[in-house]
Model the fold of this input.
Amino acid sequence: MSDTRIKEILYRNVFDSRGVETLEIDLRTRGGGYARVAAPFGAPGSRGEFEAPAYAPEGLAAMPALLDREIIPALVGLDANEQEKIDDLLVQIDGSTNFERIGGNTSSVLSIAVARAAADTKKIPLYKHLQGDTVFTLPTPLGNVIGGGAHSLGPAPDMQEHMVLPIGCKSVRQAIEINLKVHKEAGRLLEKRDIGFAGGMDDEDAWAANLNDVQALEVIEEAKKRIEDETGISIRMGLDLAADRLWNSIKNVYRYEREGIERSAAQQLEFVQSLMDRFDLVYVEDAFNSNDYDSFATLTSNAPSNCIICADDIYASNSLRTLVGINKKSAHAMIIKPNQVGTITGARRTALLAQSHGIDIIISNRSGETPDVSIADLGVAWNAIAIKAGVRGGGRIIKLNELIRIEQTEVNIQLADLNSLKI
Done:
């Protein structure tokens, strides 16, 4: 067998898709395996309250000392094939409950590099290294068409993502193409609707438009109907409200700056339900602030049978917070982001906990992205029903293209069947 022991770890600061500094790791094994992984970074306004901090309290400036003196000496010589052992060691090195000393980006980029180098040493894809020989499915791409909230500058909708989800595609490539068509058609419609629209995009390469949330949904509704007529594929719409950014904890209201409206929790529930009914939404994420499990549960209980209520910031890929949500029946699905919880092992344990209680998982990118494609492999390995990787843009389409390659390699692999979801 090839030698998967870690031989060398190098690091540097590079820049993510938003031009923000982030940590990149090169990791080599004695058997010739190699991985280069750069950490994605959530925008300051979109990082959840309960996720691990990105880096040490002093920021990236503290990383050379931590890496050179503590982390790299502890990892070199260990077997990269022993993922859980290495990830648990990273937890021990950090010494806090949520990677508050070395940062979740630091630990997760090392964790992913370990996994990728082990897979490369064994000459197998990352998803097979993580899960072995099993029946894999491909996550369906959720396409972010019009952006807003913390991901946009200037006049924009208050909610963070206005999305589409193609239903019943025969391949992941077809689903990706459908999302691209809707995105392009929405751009054409925005040119006609907004005289000031100049083709600008937000952090996640969704259109940046001078609209409120209802107007954004109206544009997408028209665009998706045109593409449905062209392709014969059913397309549904979704929202990520990122409600933590709307929540005013002093006044206990959701503040919609664009509309100049404040909504209580009860009014927020009524508003979201009206959007679900009017636009036949298939997906609603983070409709309430990340401490309000009960409102999440009420929305989940009241949602139509074909609409997925998804939790992100409230669960933060954290198993303890996820367990609270499971017990309260707060969501049908949850977002998984490895750097929220700090390691592949931590994210996997949360995913398994959720799935064992009937909660579907959705693997997700961050607003500041890098060329790493690992979330595509994680989505396949962990049977995620969907992937949030935007629609276009270099750091996003590269992940979607990786799914196309996996689809070509795994001859019998199928796209996750969202028609069969029983919520």
